[in-house]
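[09:14] KT: can someone run the structure on this one? pasting the chain below
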Amino acid sequence: MLSKLSPLVTALLIGGFAVAGAAPANADVIERYSLDFSTSGVVDDFCGSGLQPSFTYDQTGSGSAKTRGSELLWFHEETRVVQTFTYNGMTVTDIQPNTLAKDLKIVDNGDGTLSITVLLTGENRLIGSDGKLLAKGDGQIRRLLIFDTATGELISEEQIFGSTGTNDDFCEAILAHWGV
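[09:31] RB: done, structure tokens below
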């Protein structure tokens, strides 16, 4: 739940989509789409603590699929995410005001797979019930995704460039705020 990838972006990646990059001027936009999504529920075993806080998840954003001189699709997505977790009347809110995900490189491996290097960049802030900053995370990472072109299945995913920014432990901050 507190990973750098939103649940929707993760679902898109596993579904055979890859997030994409700023295309050159001659790129053709194939599709523009909305990434607006909301859900709520209860988290089982939150951060391994055994707690079951309620949550809300609200995401707004947009994306586009483009070609860059070939039939391969390059994706570019920008989202804003607000997640709120409530336990014992105490609330924490994770705000990710501007997350960018885009393809940096796509390679047809010639064996029925694609290797896609993805850039994920942005920031998030964790705010406690009292309005004070509890933790923050910012910077960028790069991931290498390998997809089966026949099935769209994500075969492997590996972080190839670690975070360039702040990496506070959100689970630790939340549990401390809740007195657990």
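[09:33] KT: thanks! The first helix runs from residue 7 to 14.
[09:34] RB: yep, looked fine to me
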